[in-house]
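Quick one: structure for this chain?
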Amino acid sequence: MEIFLRETKNVDALVFMDLEATSFTSEMIEIGAYLAEINKDGSIKKVHAPFKRYVKAKHQVGFHVAQLTGITDEKLRNEGEDFPAVLSSFRKYVGKFWDSCRFVTFSEHDMVIVKNTMAQYRDLNPSYARNIYRHHLDLQRLLDRYIQDQNGNPYSLTNYLKVFGLEFDGKAHDAIYDALNLLDLYKVAREGKEIFIKEYKNVLCGAKTRPVVKEIIHMLSEGKTVTPEMFDALLEDTFK
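Got it. Here's what it folds into:
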């Protein structure tokens, strides 16, 4: 579909990534990613072995995040690596695609995590982080333009998967599983033209759509022809 082709033009690979962060300072505590080489049409050509690291934070994880992710301060002390080392490893993982890829996340929050973590390391070269910002693709934002819930809000990752007929695979809030499901969502979404059409009609007829527009969409959906005169009549009726 054209909406995906625009996002993958002149791109050789997509890096599907998810980050977990501390409760109060939003510092990175886990990163999970899948590097996927793509064809010129944006379809997946090859998926590489996953990348996963725990990251030592300078502040406490927080009770809520620990409960949600299973990542504790003790776990980070025992299994975590310093952020500069993780960032360097991630750069090596992406390798030759570093300047010709897009970093795909679900929502903008992952970019906030990168920014807040970088702020803890004033002497760290910001070029790696800048490259991620520059080539970032928020898949939730892309889908939200056309597919929303009945209140006009974007779905969660789990619910977007359900829209396209998939169930979440694995444990939620585990970075590697979130990244894997993001990859799966991309694959089914770019092939889901009929679902996009159906869902976008629902959005156009949704509660937040202006009354006149909603009426016109309903008429068109029923196969009726809408003339300029009918449009004017609807406006007259709306403001009578």
